[in-house]
Amino acid sequence: MDSVxxxxxxxxxxxxxGMNACVRAVVRTALSHDLEVMGIRRGYQGMIEGDIVxxxxxxxxxxxxxxxxxxxxxxxDQFRTAEGxxxxxxxxxxxxxxGLIAIGGDGSLRGAAIFYDEHxxxxxxxPGTIDNDLFGTDxxxxxxxAMNTALDNIDKIRDTADAHDxxxxxxxxxxxxxxxxxxxxxxxxxxxxxxxxxxxxxxEVKRQIRSQMSTQSRSAVVVVAEGDELGGANSVAAALRDxxxxxxxxxxxxxxxHTQRGGAPSxxxxxxxxxxxxxxxxxxxxxxxxxxxxIQDGDIRLTPSRNVWGRKKAINYxxxxxxxxxx
Length: 327
Ligand code: F6P
Description:
2 domains; 11 strands; 7-stranded mixed β-sheet; 4-stranded parallel β-sheet; 18% strand; Rossmann fold; binds 6-O-phosphono-beta-D-fructofuranose; alpha/beta
């Protein structure tokens, strides 16, 4: 392979607080190694449409503290097709881009691995998703901020739950993973947590809520991951409303939704994103392609991209026990 003098950086999938800090780190580290950097806007879709801009040190000024992503993001259906990927590869070649740094979640890294197999564009991935569901890293960029945003809202909801003796079902994001729900459940003192990683039996859920609301307090907060087994907070609420034993319960649902995706990144996310951005460029310079940079026990580690999306990161089941013990 000819030596690479120009790389492209892009953000893909759901935006996550800290993506900008990562873009900044990638751009400035690459420039310090005399690599030119192009920004590919709107992820893979921008790659297909040739939406590519030049980046310099100044183009990433004043973004380390900002949520969202200056490069914009997208979920591209076209990139799922071989034709779309071939167009993307052609556009990269025309723009003189010989390598890529991708910042995104599971779907984005899966796309990256397929793209590498088909077109051999050297690529290093950075884990960027609020869901924290990527194998190969203890934490993903955006997870800490999202967790704190959700927790802040759960605290507020608890005030109302307590003031009105209500049962609140609070739904947090996490399509396939319960990391946000589980940790916010502990931090917010939830009476119950429902996550995709555990089998939820509706009768048992009802029993636990009844027991909490009669013995402990007249209010309760249940944190539900959007991807839980029972179909999310609205489905659980519908089932409770259908049950006459809950007739006396004043029940409300609050879906936190996309409030968890935006906002200024936490200190932890800014540092993580900066470290990962630097590490991604350094891995690239060393010729370590088709890998994802991650953080494990505080240290930077590289994991082959195909192991990332092929494997599921486990939650810490000990934490589930804490919910029961401490409620
Ligand atoms: O992957 C991050 C995430 O926020 C998930 O938790 C959620 O299910 C999904 O993205 C929502 O995606 P969109 O913003 O495309 O609806």
